[in-house]
Amino acid sequence: MEAVPECPDCDGSGWKRMDLAGRQGVAPCSCREQSKAQQLIEAARIPPRYQECLLENFLPRRKHPTLGKAKTMASRFVEEYPLVDSGLLILGPCGVGKTHLAVSIIHALMLRYETWCVFYDFRELLKQIQSSFNAVAKTNEWQILEPVLQCEVLLLDDLGTERPTDWVRDTFAYIINHRYNQKRTTLITSNFQDGESTRRKLPDGSVVSGEETLAERIGDRLRSRLYEMCKVIRISADDFRVEIKQAQY
Ligand SMILES: Nc1ncnc2c1ncn2[C@@H]1O[C@H](COP(=O)(O)OP(=O)(O)OP(=O)(O)O)[C@@H](O)[C@H]1O
Ligand SMILES: [Mg+2]
Ligand SMILES: [Zn+2]
To answer: Which of 104, 108, 128, 247 is the most exposed place for a label (fewest CB within 10 A)?
Structure first.
């Protein structure tokens, strides 16, 4: 394990001077452990935009009570980990802080428990798997999937934005079922509202569509598997990006 170069206790050597019963000695410095967490954080693939997202700077706003609830559930999840029996499915409209909250959870897990966590944008993951089929690419499918299947906590961000072809559903089902069978924790964020479909077939056969639901996107079987694997956190709030902009003018 590597020491932290700017550590004041050991000047980055990894060994700190100690007084051992009157004699000068050295002992391993605790910054080596910090650097394990740091290494995990760096390897977790968290996009630069979200690298500073922590539970501490996830701000609940009084007019949106679900934010406070969501933060409490997230903090409890971190406290209880690894004694949690399910992952989390974070649902809510655009810009309410789903990705921020999910990233802050894996951040805390890596820092506190040195948990192996991996972030993947769902679309990006599909793209990488697809391009790995390309014989010219150096990586193969398994190399990309290995951390996705094996890591202790997987954060799949923005599920359902991809048009669900059979291939997309199969790939998602494969990942989810594998992690479920291995009892590994999965955190998922999604924009799709849950609940009854508002899509109706009229007697003349035409379809009136409302907003598409998660079940319509990923299918009933996968949705029910997700519910078995994850506790749901629902956030309903205004778009944070818009609120910040408005506050500036
Ligand atoms: N409660 C909050 N406290 C502090 N910052 C927040 C909060 N909610 C959102 N933000 C910030 O607002 C921006 C948008 O949040 P985020 O990307 O997490 O939203 P999202 O729900 O994932 O949106 P999308 O559906 O578009 O993926 C981010 O920069 C995030 O850090
Ligand atoms: Mg997001
Ligand atoms: Zn040190």
So the answer is: 247
